[in-house]
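User: Reviewer 2 asked us to show a designed sequence for the structure in our supplementary figure. I'm pasting the structure tokens here. Could you produce the per-position amino acids so we can include them in the response letter?
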């Protein structure tokens, strides 16, 4: 299997170079059989009825990829947790659960965005529980697109303000949460994003691989080629 894992692109109209880098990746990685996006593909996703030019361009790019016979797997993140069944139909992608185990490099790997591992950030976990509730999402979808976009901007501003007042370690993963998740999944390999701290962490006989976020300068991917895994970064712009 030749598979690529990416996360945390935070696509928006304000960062066209990142979108261009994604299109370039999809065009040049001709050996890729599978693309796994582990959350926060978009800076914000206000619903599958999003009719913005950006949303349409990404739908089309992923549709072309899936129609070419490549597998596209997507785990929603904390910015685009409202990605849903219509987006999957529009793109030919498969939406994954918050935690999914698949075979990677010959062993079961636990895939997730990573925000659920940051259990020390109690305020965020409380908001996450609310925002993932069916009632909250129903009420959100009852609003117009313009109202949802405005609310998304407000929530993002509040998140930035809250993060500026939190210790760095609070926004990183909790090691006990990592161990518990891997044990429950019976997996010795975990792959996630979210923390923007790309690294490979040996855990005895196990390993946790953290994907990096894409910026105007640099992007990150994890490449699976047979039994080999390589964490790579590349220039953007």
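Assistant: Here is a per-position design you can include in the supplement:
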């Amino acid at each position: 299997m030749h598979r690529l894992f990416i996360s945390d692109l935070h696509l928006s109209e304000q960062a066209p170079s990142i979108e261009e880098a994604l299109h370039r990746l999809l065009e040049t990685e001709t050996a890729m059989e599978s693309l796994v996006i582990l959350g926060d593909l978009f800076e914000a996703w206000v619903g599958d009825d999003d009719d913005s030019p950006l949303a349409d361009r990404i739908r089309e790019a992923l549709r072309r990829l899936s129609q070419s016979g490549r597998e596209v797997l997507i785990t929603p993140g904390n910015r685009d947790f409202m990605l849903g069944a219509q987006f999957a139909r529009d793109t030919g992608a498969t939406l994954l659960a918050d935690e999914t185990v698949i075979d990677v490099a010959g062993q079961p790997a636990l895939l997730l965005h990573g925000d659920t591992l940051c259990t020390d950030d109690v305020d965020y976990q409380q908001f996450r529980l609310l925002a993932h509730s069916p009632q909250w999402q129903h009420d959100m979808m009852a609003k117009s697109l313009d109202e949802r976009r405005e609310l998304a901007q407000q929530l993002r501003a509040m998140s930035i303000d809250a993060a500026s007042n939190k210790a760095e370690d609070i926004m990183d993963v909790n090691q006990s949460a990592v161990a518990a998740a891997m044990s429950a999944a019976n997996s010795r390999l975990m792959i996630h994003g979210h923390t923007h701290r790309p690294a490979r962490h040996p855990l005895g006989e196990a390993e946790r691989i953290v994907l990096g976020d894409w910026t105007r300068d640099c992007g990150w991917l994890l490449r699976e080629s047979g039994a080999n895994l390589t964490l790579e970064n590349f220039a953007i712009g």
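For the response letter, you might also mention the following. The longest strand covers residues 218-225. The helical segments are 16-28, 53-67, 85-91, 122-131, 134-141, 145-164, 175-185.
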